[in-house]
C-alpha cells in the first residue's frame, strides 16, 4: 500500500477545493443572469407592445446608426418616407432630424411586426424553452429557443442577440 504524506494529501484536497470553487463560479457567472434578465426585459416589452421601453434597451450608439440608416432610406424611398412621416407625426422631411433616435427604432419595430406577423407571433405567443449565454468581458451572445404551437404542430425558432455592458447595464446590439 502506498504511503502518502499527510502534507501532500492536504495540498491535493486544497487544490481540488479551489478548482471546485472556480468551476462553480464559472458555471454560475452572475453576469450571465444579468444578460438573461436584460433579454427577458426586452422580450417582455415586445410582448406587451411597449416599444418605447424596448428602444431604451438598445445600445444608444446603435440607435444613432439606425437613425442615420432610416434617414438615408427615407431620402431615397418615398413609400418608406411617407410611412415614417405618418408614424413619427411629422409634416415634412425637414422634421426628421428633430425626432429622437429611439423613435426611429420604434417605427422600424412597428413596421417589421406589421410586415412579418410570424415574428410577432413567435415573440408574443412562443414559449422560451431555453437560453444560452456566451460572455467575454462586457460582450455577450445570447441564444434563445422558442416553441410556438400551431395547428400543424409545434414549431421551433431560435433568436440570437448580442449584448454589451455599459455603465453596469446590458444593452442589446442591432
Q: Can you put this structure into words, describing what you see?
A:
- By secondary structure, the chain is α+β, with helices and mostly antiparallel strands.
- It contains seven helices and four strands, in the order H-H-H-H-H-H-H-E-E-E-E.
- It has helices at 6-27, 30-48, 51-55, 60-76, 78-88, 101-115, 117-125; strands at residues 127-136, 139-150, 153-166, 169-172.
- A four-stranded antiparallel sheet has the order 1-2-3-4.
- A hairpin with a 2-residue loop joins strand 3 and strand 4.
- Helix 2 (30-48) crosses helix 7, helix 4 (60-76) crosses helix 5 and helix 6 (101-115) crosses helix 7 (117-125).
- The model has no long low-confidence stretch (mean pLDDT 87).
Write the layout of secondary structure elements.
Blueprint: H1 6-27, H2 30-48, H3 51-55, H4 60-76, H5 78-88, H6 101-115, H7 117-125, E1 127-136, E2 139-150, E3 153-166, E4 169-172
Antiparallel strand pairs: 1-2, 2-3, 3-4
Question: What would a concise description of this structure say?
Answer:
With 174 residues, the protein is an alpha+beta fold. It has helices at 6-27, 30-48, 51-55, 60-76, 78-88, 101-115, 117-125; strands at residues 127-136, 139-150, 153-166, 169-172. It starts with 5 loop residues before the first helix and ends with a strand.
Record field, number of beta strands: 4
Poorly predicted ranges (pLDDT <50, ≥5 residues)? none
Mean pLDDT: 87
Distance between termini? Answer: 64 Å
Structural class: alpha+beta
Gyration radius, to the nearest Å?
Answer: 23 Å
Morphology call: elongated
Secondary-structure element pattern, one letter each: HHHHHHHEEEE
Strand order of the largest sheet: 1-2-3-4
Q: What portion of the residues fall into strands of 2 or more residues?
A: 15-25%
Strand count, sense and barrel status of the largest sheet are: 4 strands, antiparallel
Binned, the helix content reads 55-70%
Summed up, the helix count is 7
Amino acid at each position: 500500500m502506498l504511503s502518502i504524506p499527510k502534507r501532500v494529501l492536504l495540498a491535493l484536497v486544497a487544490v481540488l477545493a479551489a478548482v471546485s470553487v472556480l468551476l462553480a463560479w464559472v458555471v454560475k457567472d452572475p453576469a450571465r443572469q444579468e444578460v438573461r434578465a436584460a433579454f427577458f426585459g426586452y422580450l417582455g416589452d415586445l410582448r406587451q407592445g411597449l416599444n418605447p421601453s424596448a428602444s431604451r434597451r438598445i445600445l444608444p450608439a446603435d440607435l444613432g446608426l439606425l437613425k442615420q440608416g432610416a434617414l438615408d432610406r427615407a431620402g431615397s424611398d418615398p413609400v418608406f418616407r411617407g410611412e415614417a412621416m405618418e408614424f413619427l407625426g411629422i409634416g415634412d422631411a425637414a422634421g426628421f432630424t428633430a425626432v429622437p433616435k429611439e423613435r426611429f427604432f420604434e417605427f422600424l419595430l412597428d413596421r417589421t411586426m406589421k410586415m412579418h406577423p410570424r415574428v410577432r407571433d413567435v415573440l408574443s405567443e412562443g414559449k422560451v424553452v431555453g437560453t444560452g449565454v456566451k460572455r467575454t468581458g462586457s460582450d455577450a451572445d445570447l441564444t434563445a429557443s422558442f416553441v410556438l404551437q400551431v395547428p400543424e404542430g409545434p414549431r421551433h425558432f431560435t433568436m440570437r442577440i448580442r449584448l454589451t455592458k455599459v455603465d453596469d447595464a446590458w444593452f442589446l446590439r442591432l
